[in-house]
Write a structure and sequence with these properties.
By secondary structure, this protein is of the alpha/beta class. It folds into three domains: 35 residues; 147 residues, Rossmann fold (3-Layer(aba) Sandwich), CATH 3.40.50; 98 residues, 3-Layer(aba) Sandwich (Rossmann fold). Helix content is 41%, strand content 18%. The protein contains 13 helices and eleven strands. The strands form four sheets. Strands 8-7-6-9 form a four-stranded parallel sheet. α3 crosses α4, α3 packs across α11 and α11 packs across α12. It is globular and about 55 Å long.
């Protein structure tokens, strides 16, 4: 499986390199060259599998160059009783005959980000070994709250890594700030930014694009990577729980084969709902994806209005093709 830049100006790379780099050299996101479509029979078979087995199968579809042992290390090292307080990892809870809640808060920080950020550090270090790269990886993260703590917890004391989390000063809750600034670990760093989340994220992207910073780190045998949803190694584990939810509905006889379902997803920068989109492309029959966004609604406004900025001076909005 090769990965292309969403901007189309970089050479294709293998999965390990995409995970290590986090973002493509041209500033685009790494996306799979081909989205594998699951055979309909596999959904029935998955009904007999636990969460870890489903995760192993799905990760293998995208990381073909990883050995079985490497995938098992990443999955079982993340999803185990030491990290998650529910054997189902992501249990599906019935509210009524047509409404279910997928619980994604059973990880060490009680944030849904644990579902991916317990796997990503293992994917990152495994990718480095596969590439023969002995560099120390400096993981940069911009957060509006829960990503920061989950990333710090996932990467704490992971050999060969150092993590720096940037968050907007006075832009996260007191609990979230205290969670981050009191994080244990010899390789963790937290930085408050004057501004909002978009300012923090823009700053991180500028660091990634800085040739001076890249060269300075190279002199120290260090490279940058990311734990934000721009990294395919974080998005991939999120696809698993959408497929798992559908499999559970099928197994319990709540959704007949071929019947579509809806997912309602609370999301900020759309990484979470993007994983649902990939699950749909892989064969989960999704009728509708409903995005529930809070005040961090830049992308919501873009889809609704076509404007990518808050500037009122724009004369003509840029509208993506599906809006015309």
């Amino acid at each position: 499986m090769r990965y292309l830049s969403s901007r189309g100006r970089s050479q294709p790379v293998e999965g390990a390199e995409a995970i290590l780099n986090g973002i493509a050299p041209d500033g685009g996101l790494f996306v799979p060259e081909i989205i594998p479509v699951l055979d309909k029979n596999i959904f029935a078979a998955m009904g007999e599998w636990n969460y870890q087995q489903k995760a192993v199968y799905i990760l293998k579809q995208y990381l073909a160059e990883f050995s079985d042992e490497e995938i098992d290390y990443c999955v079982y090292g993340a999803y185990n009783p030491n990290n998650f307080d529910n054997d189902s990892i992501a249990p599906l809870i019935k509210l009524n005959d047509s409404l279910y809640v997928l619980e994604l808060w059973h990880g060490p920080t009680s944030a849904f980000k644990d579902m991916a950020l317990q796997v990503l550090p293992r994917l990152l270090t495994t990718s480095a070994r596969k590439q023969g790269d002995m560099s120390e990886f400096v993981v940069l993260v911009a957060t509006s709250g829960d990503t920061g703590k989950a990333a710090l917890e996932g990467f704490k004391d992971v050999e060969g890594t150092r993590i720096i989390v940037f968050y907007p000063r006075e832009g996260v809750s007191q609990v979230q700030e205290r969670q981050m600034v009191t994080q244990e670990g010899k390789n963790v760093n937290v930085v408050a930014v004057n501004g909002n989340f978009d300012d923090a994220q823009t700053g991180v992207k500028r660091i990634f694009a800085s040739s001076d910073m890249i060269n300075l780190l190279a002199e120290q045998n260090r490279k940058m990577s990311s734990a934000n949803s721009i990294n395919w190694g974080r998005l991939l584990p999120q696809i698993v729980y959408y497929i798992s939810a559908y499999v559970e509905l099928r197994r319990n006889g709540k959704v007949p084969e071929g019947e579509s379902i809806n997912f309602v997803v609370p999301t900020g920068n759309f990484g979470n709902i993007l994983a649902a989109y990939y699950a749909g492309r892989m064969g989960v029959p999704i009728n509708k994806l409903v995005c529930a966004s809070n005040a961090n609604n830049v992308l919501t406004e873009f889809i609704n209005t076509g404007y990518m900025t808050a500037s009122a001076s724009l004369k003509k909005p840029f509208l993506p093709p599906w809006i015309y």
